[in-house]
Write a structure and sequence with these properties.
With 258 residues, this protein is of the alpha/beta class. 18% of the residues lie in helices and 34% in strands. It is built from 6 helices and 15 strands. The strands form 3 sheets. The protein has a 7-stranded mixed β-sheet with strand order 10-9-8-7-11-12-15, with helices on both faces. A 6-stranded antiparallel β-barrel has the order 1-2-5-4-3-6.
């Protein structure tokens, strides 16, 4: 898939909670083709301590509005600078990068999309693509508290939504792998993104259930094209660059302790 380096205009910067910002970016020309699960590398301007681009998952692509959505968590100097962007600012992006989630082969296929924290971001675009293909996804999203849940109304547009919170302030109390839906329903495939301990727990569940599972890894990435080797992951096929061979992997290939 062809890659582009383009300056996108911030159409809106919507603050979600205390540390997340939803950037809605646009361009004077139609945005390039992008697939669910892919990511962009963004240049951080105005931060003397940030020298490398930051990888951000594609949250959503609104073709009608010609918008690319990026959900950013302010966790360091670079991402805090991104969260300070305002409408009218420019953001230099390299896109689209990486591979994508596996789309259902039939509308009847039952797919569970499991996310935690900012890892919910790529699942929205995946769910929208599935719905457009005639397949209704089931979302299972986890957070520490109700205040940490994001884009709930957007997820509801494309499929069934179930939620867990660690404190029980919304949905069922506990982790995503504690949700009662996992013991009452069967799925043909699970796709997950979020903190590694969460993804490993989802992978263990899928393995015991005999369900195919893929995970979108969030390793540290700098170049996005497999040159710097800082995102290498140990797999059954040897050491692979997450940015180039991933970020989506079948969990059977990952040498996690599952």
């Amino acid at each position: 898939m062809k890659k582009y380096i383009i300056d996108l205009t911030v159409r809106a910067a919507e603050h979600i909670g205390t540390k997340h910002v939803l950037l809605k970016l646009t361009d004077g020309r139609p945005l390039p083709e992008m697939l669910p699960g892919q990511f962009v590398e963004v240049r951080v301007d105005g931060s003397p301590s940030t020298f490398l681009r930051r990888p951000i998952s594609i949250n959503f692509v609104d073709r009608q509005a010609n918008e690319l959505w990026l959900l950013v968590a302010a966790v360091g100097d670079g991402t805090r600078q991104l969260c300070a962007l305002k409408a009218g600012d420019m953001l230099n992006c390299v896109l689209p990068l990486g591979n994508s989630f596996t789309m259902p082969v039939a509308a009847s296929e039952r797919v569970l999309l499991v996310g935690g924290g900012v890892g919910v971001a790529p699942l929205l675009y995946m769910g929208a693509a599935m719905r457009q293909a005639g397949c209704e996804p089931t979302f299972l999203l986890g957070a520490r508290t109700k205040a940490d849940l994001m884009e709930m109304e957007e997820f509801k547009k494309y499929g069934r939504l179930f939620v867990t919170t660690e404190d029980g302030s919304e949905g069922e109390k506990g982790f995503v792998t504690d949700h009662s839906i996992l013991s009452s329903e069967h799925y043909d495939r699970i796709s997950t993104c979020g903190p590694q301990p969460m993804m490993a727990a989802v992978a263990r569940f899928a393995s015991k259930a005999g369900t195919d599972c893929e995970a979108s890894l969030e390793n540290m990435m700098a170049c996005g094209i497999g040159a710097c080797l800082c995102c290498v992951e140990k797999t059954t096929e040897g050491n692979l660059c997450v940015c180039k061979e991933g970020p989506v992997f079948n969990t059977k290939k990952l040498l996690w302790q599952i």
